[in-house]
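Intended use. Records like the one below are meant for learning the mapping from a protein sequence to its folded structure. Do not use them to infer anything beyond what is encoded.
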Amino acid sequence: MNVRRLIPTTAVAGAVVLGLTALSACSASDAADHKGGDKLNVVASFYPMQFLAEQIGKNHVSVSTLTKPGVEPHDLELSPREVGGLSDADYILYLKGLQPAVDDAIKLSGAENTVDAAKLTSLEDHGAEVGGEEHAHEHEGEEAGADPHIWLDPVKYAEVAKGVGKSLEKTDPDHAADYRKNTDALVTKLAALDTAYENGLKNTATKTFITTHSAFGYLAERYGLTQEGIAGIDPEAEPSPARISALHAIARKEKVTTVFFETLASDKTAKTVARDTGLKTDVLDPLEGITGKSEGDDYIGVMESNLAALQKALGAK
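Structure written out for the chain above:
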């Protein structure tokens, strides 16, 4: 069952102690392998941060991610070695508030060079949407009302990319020129993605979509859409009759055709709502992680697939 769990601070503290002890027992050759070579040892908290580090760092970085393919990031449990290993990282890129276990581990590890992507752009409150209050409870580590899903807006993601690029320049000044070049190339790709979304969603039969995960607030705001989330409830749980009734009314009024579900959670809720409202189901990937099944899939590719799914569901002309 896909329950979004938070790791208690005391448990993380214990893991830090165990992890640091385990690391101190490593041989000198292990340490040399870990720190050896010219590459910057980068740790990313989850896929959107990993993608930025890889695209901007290229061959100057060695990137590892705390959230492995197929793991829902909110369900992340860190091993003692992973927690202790944070103190050995040259550079840590994370998004504070999305994964409380990561936030606690970073704080307790004493790692010096950490970059919080949330500080590289402005966060907004999307909690006023239908289902938003429940969704806010899903991310209990966040500041009240702050929506962390900034990477689903290509414009905001580009702002974060620029900040990451500048921080890598400061961390590794010998390769600053390459980081600038790689950042510019990524920002150009994100600008093209933004243009594709703007043009592709400009003329549609409806502007409203329903999704099991209220992750698309920034995307909806950017392109003039309305997100109707079915929760913050557990992905396996049945929506209330009142909520189904409300969604039925919204779907009828706004000519909604599709209920979207995500790749890393069950489609049970989406199918329930679709069955009771006479709608279809499809995937809208919040890109919080990757499945690891398709090697060719990356941020750009999945966002393009999301655009195609939205165009189909919204009746793009």
